[in-house]
Amino acid sequence: xxxxxxxxxxxxxxxxxxxxxxxxxxxxxxxxxxxxxxxxxxxxxxxxxxxxxxxxxxxxxxxxxxxxxxxxxxxxxxxxxxxxxxxxxxxxxxxxxxxxxxxxxxxxxxxxxxxxxxxxxxxxxxxxxxxxxxxxxxxxxxxxxxxxxxxxxxxxxxxxxxxxxxxxxxxxxxxxxxxxxxxxxxxxxxxxxxxxxxxxxxxxxxxxxxxxxxxxxxxxxxxxxxxxxxxxxxxxxxxxxxxxxxxxxxxxxxxxxxxxxxxxxxxxxxxxxxxxxxxxxxxxxxxxxxxxxxxxxxxxxxxxxxxxxxxxxxxxxxxxxxxxxxxxxxxxxxxxxxxxxxxxxxxxxxxxxxxxxxxxxxxxxxxxxxxxxx
Length: 374
Fold this sequence. Notes:
The protein contains 16 helices and seven strands. Helix 5 (about 140-155) links the parallel strand 5 and strand 6.
């Protein structure tokens, strides 16, 4: 430990039982091969580190453990890291990492194939279950009920559940009250953006990895400027250093403190999704050509994809029905309005539509650093 800063070197996200990962050592690794694949704990996230160490020591800790925080604070990284360290310490004990999306898909498949008992046993047979992006279950009432049963089993059998969410369970709409109460019955810890001391370590290591030479005033400017208005996350700091490296190479000159401030000011102007961006996201997710969605085609899968895109355009942008209609093949605004209302009705009746909407929204939230939901 140095100045309250801890690091977790992460060599692989998909661990094997034979991997020897000192993920929770107190010393910050300086090994070149570790690069920057590590999580830096400052004092602001010391409770998270202590809770994870209790899990790995199999000490008494309230279950479920809920780690919540904004996009980019490292929830997914820590969830994979926790499982990797568990495999290292307890290779004979079963553990499982999944996501809300995969849990919902497996549950829906089990219901469809009448194999719900096999699905249940898969999750009941592990000592540690880690679920990332659990908020995806918010519109899947039957999957939520199944998770409630799993939580009850874990509490009765001294097993551990760790879940990752963007916010507290009670702040997520459409979460069943039974699930929210069980999640709130455990331990909830917020994962925060790095504080000043942690950012100092991050900036130094990022500069080393990306070959950016920072004099003391420029370095201090970057560390301190990242604290203005909204603290910077690790991905945002990495993006800043990469941008600095690119612009330094282009202009063949050193970066100054004023350049850092200008770059951060540009980054504060976070891009927002537009009609084309949303249509493209839906096209890629559903594997449908964008031109087909904009065409006059009436095949069912095209109509549904177009409807999903139109619905999300109204939810994520301030575009009018006329603006959306002009993009989707110069359709009349009344046609777009009808498509929007039709999709809203289907959303309440068709689980596959709800799942597609949630999955596209999840991608848009990550890309544009949003926290939107339906």
